[in-house]
UniProtKB/TrEMBL annotation:
SUPFAM superfamilies: Methyl-accepting chemotaxis protein (MCP) signaling domain
Domain Methyl-accepting transducer span(s) in chain numbering: 30-78
Record carries keyword Repressor: no
PROSITE patterns in UniProt: CHEMOTAXIS_TRANSDUC_2
Organism: Vogesella aquatica
Protein name (record): Methyl-accepting chemotaxis protein
Keywords assigned: Transducer
Domain of life assignment: Bacteria
InterPro entries given in the database record: Chemotax_Me-accpt_rcpt (IPR004090), MCPsignal_dom (IPR004089)
Amino acid sequence: MSNKPTHKTSSGELAGFVRLNEGIKGVVLIAFQINIMALNAILLAHRAGEVALGFGVISKELRSLSVELTGLMQELSNDAYLAVNLISDLLRQERRYRLLKKATDLVANPSPALRDVMVRREEEFSLITHRVRDVRLRLLDRLEDARKLCQFGTAISRSAKIEAAYGREYGRALAEVSQEFDQKIQNILPSIEALCTGMQRR
């Protein structure tokens, strides 16, 4: 099994994807909080009327962003779950291969049937390895999309601060909401960066 990673490598990959899933849950939680905040901000902007029209538009954009980010994280979670299953299968394949290899080594002249089984195991392992690689590449693409989305969110949240300044008697409340938006977005970015780095190291 020349292209087969070691048991340690597969176990390490499994742990990496489990950590990824935990990181995704953290991002989803923040995205949910942004969604709730955006709904409240839309209501506040509606009460403020014409002076907060721009703030209301930005709040709707942030809500859309949170929904899109949540969708991306769900896709990532599905892929991470698939990767965990694939790597678990790889670990089973490795164990089977070792047992077959021991059996083959004990026999002076292994039968063609046993050699065929060994070849099939190698082919199966290679196929699963390629599927894991494809899932990892897809995960990296989606993480990059999430990073760009968060960078866009940072720009929007800064615009919210500017719009809050036009809120007159609602200015203070709008400014507080815009500050919270900015903090939440800033909390997501390091998480996304860490997830990207973790995947790139695999």
